[in-house]
Specification:
about 400 residues; about 0% helix; 5-stranded antiparallel sheet; mainly beta
Length: about 400
Amino acid sequence: SLRIVGASAIMNTCFIRAEGYNMVKFDFPGINLLDSSHHNQCNGTVMFDIKSEPGLPDNTTIFNHAGIFFDDNPVVMTDTVETIIGVLPVAGSIAATASTICVGLPVALIDTATGGVWSSSSLAIAAISSTGIISGLAPGADTISYTVSNDCGVATIALVITVNPMPNAGTIVGANNVCAGDSLQLNNAITFGVWSSAEGRVVISPSAKAYGVAEGADVISYSVTNSCGTDVAILPVTVNPVPVGQTINRNGFVLSVAAGYASYAWMMNGSPINNANQNTYPVSGTGAFTVVVTNNFGCSFTYPPVTIGDCNLADIQVYPNPTESVIYVSWCHPLHGNISFTEGKIIREVSSATQIDISDLPNGIYNLNLYDDYGRRLLSRRITKLSK
């Protein structure tokens, strides 16, 4: 069972049985060693393997020493070397609940063998502590190893794990208010999420179209789910009220709706009327008249149209009379006019006579003359100016 591995000079080997022991003799014939004062020039080696007896139990200690003879000098004994019989290391098996983990969520690994060392092949993807706690750092694949070593060798077992990202719901982009009965378009750069609303005041479609159905506050949610959990992005939304309107009031050729809204926009036959931006409008012309009112929330309501047909001279309205400042004129067609003294001297010409300011005139009685576009006088009426 002896195998010579090497020697520093030519060597003879023989086996000796003496006093119940088996011994081996290494003989280096013909070498001339220098005396002990030349340490660096008088070294020699012999290397060998030898098998232990079969069936020795683990942890059996084998003692070895050697005697060295230099010529006829007394033997020099080496130190005794102890060799303990051992077994090859076993890396056991790694116990894991799953081979998939999530970024940022630690998981404990356990190996059936003790005394080993944990390691990760890619520290950018996963890190593992000395106690087997693995932490996912970035999405990807990694190999986790458990290595057990002793004097007889090294054993390693590996587990390939996949690190998945945590869900990310991104950010909801869009307005945070909508008018009741209207809609707004929301967006999110993250795909495959689910839209919902908390209170039901907003109904939202899979394409992120949000419809305001009831006034009040609501919260829009966008949920993204994967194997690592669910993430939710939210957007508080307010459903604002729209103006409440019924019908346009008509008093002769003066149309009116409720006061107090932020803006008014009158239209005739679907087209905007210049400078018609009050809650009242003295009609000029014939057709279908309507008004769009907008409240302070920016929500609008369009009144049902009122149709004004053709008219006659009796429909011309001049009011108030007497007045302290302004005379209003309404008819279904444009009118032009002038103000004159009662003896006929004209003191003021008026084009598009819908309202005539006479606040700067002295108190007294004046003539108001109204004409059509062709210069025909349609009405002459005395008006009275009073002090404020």
